[in-house]
Specification:
about 120 residues, alpha+beta, Alpha-Beta Plaits, 5-stranded antiparallel sheet, 3 helices, about 35% helix, ribonuclease P RNA binding
């Protein structure tokens, strides 16, 4: 696989006690904080896109270049506190199991016979 290929991670942010309301931009900020905490300014500058987000269950789909996957995954795994609250990211679907949103739409259209 090309090292510049996009990889998608389906992740969930969980809090030990009651979770604060986390808007989309806040979720992106927490991901950036995790990268900065482990990899410094270089990590914080890494190109990670939040392509889908559900504020109800704090679940998001992140897109990252394959060459940066290990850095992102390790930063999310080791991140443990947000504003003095214990928290953890869980990777819900591994890259090989995840269908990117664009591909999902193509699959959906094919199953509907092109209608929709």
């Amino acid at each position: 696989m090309d090292s510049s290929a996009d990889i998608y991670l389906d992740v969930m942010l969980e809090f030990e006690s009651s979770a604060p309301h986390v808007e989309e931009t806040m979720f992106e900020g927490i991901v950036t904080l995790a990268l900065k905490q482990l990899h410094g300014d270089v990590g914080a500058a890494m190109a990670v896109d939040l392509v889908m987000y559900n504020s109800g269950n704090l679940q998001g789909v992140l897109r990252v270049q394959e060459s940066d996957l290990v850095k992102l995954w390790s930063a999310l795994t080791l991140y443990g506190y947000y504003e003095s609250q214990r928290c953890a990211f869980t990777v819900r679907k591994e890259p090989s199991d995840f269908i990117p949103p664009k591909e999902f739409r193509k699959l959906e259209e094919a199953e509907l016979g092109g209608c929709g």
